[in-house]
Amino acid sequence: MSTAAPSASARRLTLNVVAMVVGKMAAVVIGLATIALLTRYLGPEGFGHYRTVLTVLAVAAICSDLGLQMVVLREVSRPGQDAGHVLGSALALRMILTSLAVIGVGIAALFLPYPEIVMLGVFVAAPYYIMLQCSFLLGTFFLKHLRQDQLMAGEVLGGIVILAGLGLALWLGQGVIGALLAMVAGGAAQFALLWFWARRLERFSLSVDPKTWRFLLFTGLPIAGSEIALMIILRGDILLLSILDTATAVGLYGVPSKIFEILGSLTTLFAGMMMPLFVAALAAKGTERLNETLGNALDVMLIFGGGVIACCLAFSAEIVELVAGNAFTSAAPVLLLIGVAVAGHSLAQIYRHLLTAMNRPELALRVDVVGMVLAIALYVVLIRWYSHVGAGIATALVECGLALGLACMLRRQGIEGVLPRSWFKVVIVTIMVGLGMRFASQEGMHWFQAMALGGLAYLGLLVLSAAIPLAYLKTMLRKEAAPTAGKIQPALR
Hints:
The chain is an all-alpha fold. 82% of the residues lie in helices and 0% in strands. The chain is built from 14 helices and no strands. α12 runs antiparallel to α13 (447-464).
């Protein structure tokens, strides 16, 4: 079977954006329903234990990634590459590395000041992260072939199984351990479905290939450094909260933090979908195609981030109460800060994937190391001063700082248009709509209605101000982009 990268058409990209949005909307609904069940049943302290378990294991999973995700995505997107062999070798390597990492962190947890329920939960939930990491790697095939519909279906299936298993666990009164077992079942369902569909796109099988492993590891080392730094940034908040504060504080912060994860996964998926287009644009002659691709990607991410901020500015308290219940209302200020963090994270993902497509991940590493040092200092100081609210302040500052630093790195490489073209318009519209929705709610309109009308006003004002490139959208629906051309060295052979 040919493994040449498919010609990426703008129309197919549009359809995949639609599939991604629809699938993610379903995943978001399922995720929020899961949080609602967990928080109401476990309470702030129990939910804090649950989030601590997930954070400890997530640290192990990210440390074991060693940059494989982005390197494999780049390699399978190359024209003429034996994508099946690359993926099969990478999957075998990931299974080994993740298994060793979660076993190691499980042993380390025995020596940390955690209650028994957390230490037991780490071992119970370990298989989930092994399957989740492998599912992420399988996702590179779906991104390459622009089959986000199948990728989203796998995620939705996993979420449904988790939700059903959680309901059963709560009915049986199994608490935190039952919730973790439900999560393992969902991870298994998602992995099995993605494996089946990926093999229908291109044949592959697990393989032990030391030469390929060496290439993947060596190439991924700068990315791995960035991922470890990002892990400290993204997970250090809950880790330090669990050590410096109470389980209740972790539980309160865990609700907006989980919302950040849900929304952040959408931006990461979109950025991953842009990777083949960045590779093709870099291979083409001239800079016009790259500048246009980058500019449109940044506009999409900024508009998304602005919408999140507007909703959090108007209804952070209502959203937290809807998702988690009255016991978590003190987490409302953190959700507004997390909205700002989502906007910064969205732009940073585009910059990060472009640097990887340029084969310059070491530039992202420099930014991430500085961000890591800053994050540790901010978390320690602000958590001690303001508890979970301090963690939210630190997260917002660091995420926005990372986006700015990555943009500067791209500018130094001669990339034009590293700032979103319509940033000023989006900022103004975001503030206007956020305050307008809050005012409408205070005047008696139900906040659901105010949010719906605010969303229409947000999009309408962006169209009127020409912040949304309607001409580009029409082009996407009618014309196909040029086929992928050329290769970018060095390539895996």
